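We include this case.
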Amino acid sequence: MNSNITHSLRIALEIHAAKIWNPYVKNLFITISKIAVIIFVAEVLIMFGFIFFELDMPQHVEPFVDGVLLLLLCSWPIIRVTQNVIEESAVARAADSVSDSIVVINTSGKIESLNRATLQIFGYKDETELLGEPIEILMPVHIGEHHQKFIKDSSVDSSKKIGRRRVLEGVRKDGSIFPIDITVNSATENLSVKYVGVLRDVTAEKEIEHLKDLYSRELEQSNESLRDANERIEIDAARFIELAEEADAANRSKSDFLASMSHEIRTPMNGVLGMAQLMLMSDLPDETRENIEIIQESGNTLLTLLNDILDLSKIEAGKVELELMEVDIEAKVRTVSSLLKDQIEESGVEYIQNISVDLIAPSVIGDSTRIGQVLNNLISNAKKFTHEGSIEISLSQRALVDGQIETKFEVKDTGIGLNADQQSRIFQSFSQADQSTTRKYGGTGLGLTISKQLAELMGGEIGVESVPGEGSTFWFTIVGERVASTPVPDDLDVQEKPESLDETPTGLPYLLVAEDNKVNQKIMSRILNALGFEFEIVENGQLAVDAMLEGSFDLVLMDINMPVMDGVIATKHIRSMNGTKGRIPIVAVTANVMKGDKEEYLGAGMNGYVSKPVSPIGLLEAITEHANCQDDPIREIDGGPSLDLASGA
């Protein structure tokens, strides 16, 4: 008999014995057993003494000894039973201390004994409710039907399910069904077979398993959802990259288109404005001069519109970078003012420059070009909408933290003014005060939009204060670092820019002009002739390189977009030449004005950059700066070559 069966049988016998022997009976038999043992031991000692000393047992003692022996013989079974009861009592206490149910049944399936845990697990109060009952009382109906077959099969082949662990269902007294883990062993007692079942309530374990399964399913679902989400993210990321590439391609296409359109528009504009300027430098009848001035003004308006569109496009694309340098604030205001002062005063409007104030930092780090652009926009707007009264320019500064200085520019006019609604829309793209403004005064509404974005790019802001019919005060601020101030020359207005061609320097260099457009060749020829320069014109970069190898020049005016060889490649070839030819000053004269163009040309070895349409003064400045001409005045224009427009010279 294996250890499991022995253990189960022992527990079962203990339970059985516990039902027969109550505590009083047990104590009685224990006491009797102790007395019997003492008497037996005493008699043995007496007999041993007589035998050892070879004494004859007295006649009256012999019957007593025989009686004791007889008593011992009669009480020995009682002693053995008592011993078994004691042992079984210990086992019973152990069985009642375990938490598992232990049930003993006979071959008829009747319950013969059980432990206290059985009552607790199955919800019974007293063992009499179960003793003698069929074991099916502890099983659901569908389990009970199979149990009879199990009993029958086990009587034939007890190895079929004996000793095997199974998980079945039990039923409590209240009818509730719960899972149980059961192991059944068999044992033989007095030639009869007993079945000992050890049952354990596994409701908590099943609940844990259920929760684990539920959690596993939820985890798997979450993982599946996560995998789906990752797949969607990967798809979205791939799509995002694709869209980003498409957007980049679109931006490149847009930039290329704008660059191409800018170049194509500036090229004929160079002819229109160049010819207009040249014609205005000659003696003309008043009516003809007026007509040409209209052409020039219209051309300048178109050029302004083109510049605004390009600026807006570059700002919106985030391609505008500030060129930070030391800026003399007062000098900058004077320079911008000098360009518009005469026009304003000619219209009968008083022009006031309130810039002679004590500034915290006369010089700050900023972008001189962009400051001038915003200020020029505000002054031009004031000029456009002010027909009487005055336009006043003023400056102020305040110190910020970390050595930063905020400079405020104000342009106050006595013009038509703006109401609150107009003020809220005035800085929006393509927006003016109202449609009648466009019809009456012209413009696209881009100037203030660009000014707003440039002011913000320079760390400041822009705004307006206005009363309809009384005028407006437009202002903007910039933020820059303080730098050491430098003295401002008294004749700054003259030094900043030549006012006329009468002040051109001497020491004339011999120029090489590379230009493929026939109209632009005529414009360059007539401007250079008017300025008194000697020059040679070639039609492409390759001819410019050949001319440099064969001749001797002091400066090259290089177009960029040319057939056969463009200006950049031609410049690199020239820079590879030996001696002074490889160091000749080269100035780009081009209609390419997009971001990075100037940097590209300077990086290729050029010394300067002039954008088209070319003005005579702008071209003269570039030649003077890079050819190191002398400062002595050149002969009067009137004494120079005649500007015969019909000849095409």
User: Anything to note?
Assistant: Residues 2 and 213 are 37 Å apart (CA to CA). DSSP finds 18 helices and 17 strands in the chain. The mean pLDDT is 76. The first helix runs from residue 3 to 20.
